[in-house]
């Protein structure tokens, strides 16, 4: 490829030379040659000069590919040979063969491929032979024929020598280029190494400055902190901050050089030694955690302390930093807090015991009062004036109300004292709903309300404490009946449509509703919705608090949603819910009847 490139680069110069030669031959042909052939020969020379000149102009615009170098050279040689052979045919003088001989020699000096040279030389010999055969055995033609053959041999020799020289030169040029590249690479590596060394030097200087600045900041921080800070190496104190000297009631100068273990009480040194000195397979640091030990002052007094140890740079080397904190006040506060907690727990137990005892003591006479009132109403009501009967009914109602209040307080105290005992067993939800409706049937009928029950057909038993779940539902349905004047109350169960597993129990009413801002407050003990309208319904404000606590103990979640003037929904969430409309709802008895 390099030899082809060499020939291709020489083609433009060859075209210029040939164009100039043929242009110079035009007047020579006109002046030297005689006869009608002179004009034709001059015209041919002019045409060839124009062709070669035009080819050169094209090469100004377009680069000749290296692979076309020999092809272009052979084409030029063929054009020149055709012109010379044409002249040789037109003349009878063998001297015209001289130029053909020169062209063959020139081809050997120009071309660098023996195959292409053989094509040119073969064409020249073939053309010359065709012109010379009719004129043999003329000695002059034989002489020029031999000269042409010698020129072909000389041309091939010159080509071979030039080719070897150029190959060697190209090889030297490649080697020189390789050495130049290697030299440039070595220079780049040297420069890179120099730059790397300079960067390393600058980084080292910067690191030294940073270390010094860090040590200075650390020293200032140690001096300013409220903790005692002691620097030590190989078990000996190097320096300390003023707070450490104050803790141990000695000057910093007196501490320097002493064993760091002297700062710990003797009976705590075994525990502290593994951390301070790294003995016993420990790393010698606390990893940021504090170790509680007894500190020992230089005067022999002791104080509770927390210590932590970290590694740090100090004065050009690695040292350890012991951070001490006097926790005397903290320990005193912990003792006081522990004592207060024990007293609070004792008071809570006493309160729970008092409430349980008082509830029992109050329930016994109340049950008697309520029982005697029932007896009077059943047996003596028709013999007593209506006014006295009304008094007895009031005694009964107020006694029952007071008994319910006592029961609520007792339940609340058990929950607060974590003494509420629950059982978990399968609960037939439809049967539970029927029990709740029966318990509240009289109350709902007095208010002109009906309690609707809706359960899915495929509902499976729920796992809960049946007594406490019934208590929650009675509270929720009772509240719904109490706070609803018009409309109705719905007791509803929602289940997984595929498995029938209970997901949610709902109590929905069309009552007065609850403001959104109070949807969480209503679950606090003794809380009721504010306003005279809500207060007019009475109640203790304990039912919802107890209901939510019981649900949480059973692993459920009681939530409320409401719109004022439209009603409320209280839902006991047992599992994550699907979309409610996926459940097929039928009445509890399966026939579409209402409870």
List its traits.
595 residues; alpha+beta; Beta-Lactamase; Helix Hairpins; 4 domains; six-stranded mixed β-sheet; five-stranded antiparallel β-sheet; 15 helices; 13 strands; 58% helix; disordered C terminus
Describe this structure in words.
- With 595 residues, the protein is α+β, with helices and mostly antiparallel strands.
- The chain has four domains: 2-181, no CATH class; 225-326, PAS domain (Beta-Lactamase), CATH 3.30.450.20; 335-416, Orthogonal Bundle (Helix Hairpins); 425-587, Histidine kinase-like ATPase, C-terminal domain (Heat Shock Protein 90, 2-Layer Sandwich), CATH 3.30.565.10.
- The chain is 58% helix and 14% strand.
- A six-stranded mixed β-sheet has the order 11-12-10-9-7-13.
- Strand 4 and strand 5 form a beta hairpin.
- Helix 1 runs parallel beside helix 3, helix 4 (97-110) packs parallel to helix 6 (139-224) and helix 13 (466-482) runs antiparallel to helix 15.
- The longest helix has 86 residues, at 139-224.
- The model is unreliable at 279-284, 530-536 and 576-595 (pLDDT under 50).
What's this, in brief?
The chain contains 15 helices and 13 strands. By secondary structure, it is of the alpha+beta class.
Overall pLDDT level:
79
Residue share in helix: 55-70%
Q: What does the overall shape look like?
A: elongated
Q: Using DSSP, what is the number of strands?
A: 13
Radius of gyration: 60 Å
What quaternary form is this?
single chain
Tell me the count of domains: 4
pLDDT under 50 segments (min length 5)?
A: 279-284, 530-536, 576-595
Biggest sheet strand line-up: 11-12-10-9-7-13
Q: What's the helix count? A: 15
Strand content: 5-15%
Give the helices and strands as they follow along the chain: HHHHHHEEHHHEEEHHEHEEHEEHHEEE
Helices and strands: which structural class?
alpha+beta
